Amino acid sequence: MKEFALKYGCNPNQKPAKIYMHDGSELPIEILSGRPGYINFLDAFNSWQLVKELKAATGLCAVTSFKHVSPTSAAVGIVLPEKLKKACFVDDIPDLDDSPLACAYARARGTDRMCSFGDWVALSDECDATTAKLIQREVSDGVIAPGYTEEALAILKTKRKGSYNIVKIDPDFVPDAQERKQVFGITFEQGRNNFKIDETLLENIVTKNKDLPESAKRDLVIALITLKYTQSNSVCFAYDGQAIGVGAGQQSRIHCTRLAGGKADTWFLRQHEKVLNLPFRAEIGRPTRDNVIDGYVNQNEEDVCAEGNWQKYFTSQPAPLTNAEKRTYLDAIRGVSLGSDAFFPFDDNIQRAYASGVDYVAEPGGSIRDDAVIDCCDRHNMVMAFTGMRLFHH
C-alpha cells in the first residue's frame, strides 16, 4: 500500500487528506481493522516511536496512551502492586501478572484515566490476549503494534462492532533521516531527532547529593523519552516504571510543572484507602467512576459527596477526603523522578516538584539561574543531573 486515503484531515472541512511515503515507497503499516483518521495516525506514529525507544533503552516491553499528539503516560512491563491494580481497575484480571505487556498497558492506561478516555495505544511487542482484553473494555480510538496473536486480534475486532482501528507496523522500518512538514504553504525540513536517551545522560550530577539509584535512573530515562514525544514545553513525573504526570504544551515551565505535579498527586491519591473503598453503585461504569474519583480527590465543579449528588454514584454517603488528609498522604511519598525538556529558569519548579515527592531531576541545564536551581535542590537534598540535551517537540 503506497497511500491511504483519509476521510478528512484534522477537521472535517480539511479535504482531501491522505498519508503516503515521500519517496513513493510502500507504507510500513497494515490496517487490520477500521479506518484511522489523520489525528489517529499522528498519534500512532508518534506513540510507536516512544514505545520502541523505551524498550530499546530499558530492555522491557513498553506501552503508551496518547491523546492529541501527546502521551498521557508511558510505562514498562513491571507487575503492579495490589493497591495500584485496584486503582487502575484491573484487580479483576487473574492472569495479569503473567503478561508484562498487559502490566505495562494497565499502568499506562491507568495513570491519567480521564485524559486517556478515547486514546490511541501503542505496544512495543506483539499484542497478547490479556492485553487485548484490557484494551477491549476501555474507550479507545485505536492501537498500533508490531503484531497481534490470533486470539488477541479476534478480541480486538469485536470492539466498536468491528470498526476499532487496529494497525500493524513493520518494527524494522527506518524512516528517512530528514523530515518535512508544511505550515502556511511553506515547507519546513529538519533532521529527525535521533538523539539516543539512556543512563549515560545522567552522569553529570551537579548537586551535592550524587546518590542516584538504579530505579531512579530507569524512571528518569522513562521521563525523558516520554518528553521527547510530548508537545513542548513539557515536564514529566515518573515513578515505579511509569510516567505518572505529564504537563504538556504550556508556554511557561512552572505551569508545566504544576500541571504534571497535580496529575502525579491525583495518581497517588487514587490509591488512598478512602478512594479505593468508595461505595460505588454497581451500575456505574469505569469512565463515570474516573470522573467521580477526580471530583472526589480534587473537589472539582461538582461536590460528589454533597446531599443530592452522592445518591447518583454511591450506595452510601462517603466522607470527604480532606485537604489535611491529602497533604499527610502526599507528604509521606518520596522517590519520584522528574524530567524537563528544557532548563528550569527559576527554582519555583523545584519547590513545586518537591511538594509532589520528587527527589531526582534531569534537565538540560544552561540557564543563567542554574546556580539558584541547584541550590534549591541542595536545600531539599535532591539529586539533579544536567543532560545537556533539549528535547523540544512540535
Q: How many DSSP helices?
A: 13
- Low-confidence spans: none
Indicate the radius of gyration in whole angstroms.
Answer: 21 Å
CATH-defined architecture of the largest domain: 3-Layer(aba) Sandwich
* CATH class division of the largest domain: Alpha Beta
Number of domains: 3
Per CATH, the superfamily of the largest domain is AICAR transformylase, duplication domain
> Spatial order of the strands in the main sheet?
3-8-7-6-4-5
Report the helical percentage: 25-40%
Distance between the termini: 28 Å
Summarize the helix and strand pattern as letters: EEEHEEHHEHEHEEEHEEHHHHHEHEHE
Structural class: alpha/beta
Largest sheet: 6 strands, mixed
Mean pLDDT: 96
The 3D shape can be described as globular
Write down the CATH topology of the largest domain: Cytidine Deaminase, domain 2
Strand content: 15-25%
Task: Walk me through the structure.
With 394 residues, the protein is α/β, with parallel strands linked by helices. It folds into 3 domains: 3-174, Cytidine Deaminase, domain 2; 180-269 and 330-386, Cytidine Deaminase, domain 2, CATH 3.40.140.20; 273-320, no CATH class. The chain is 34% helix and 21% strand. The chain contains 13 helices and 15 strands. The chain has helices at residues 38-58, 82-87, 100-111, 129-136, 150-156, 214-228, 253-269, 273-276, 286-298, 310-313, 323-331, 348-355, 370-379, and strands at 3-6, 17-20, 29-33, 62-67, 70-76, 119-123, 140-145, 165-169, 178-183, 186-191, 234-239, 242-248, 336-340, 358-363, 383-386. The strands form 4 sheets. A 6-stranded mixed β-sheet has the order 3-8-7-6-4-5. Strands 12-11-13-14-15 form a 5-stranded mixed β-sheet, with helices on both faces. The radius of gyration is 21 Å and the shape is globular. The two termini are 28 Å apart. The mean pLDDT is 96.
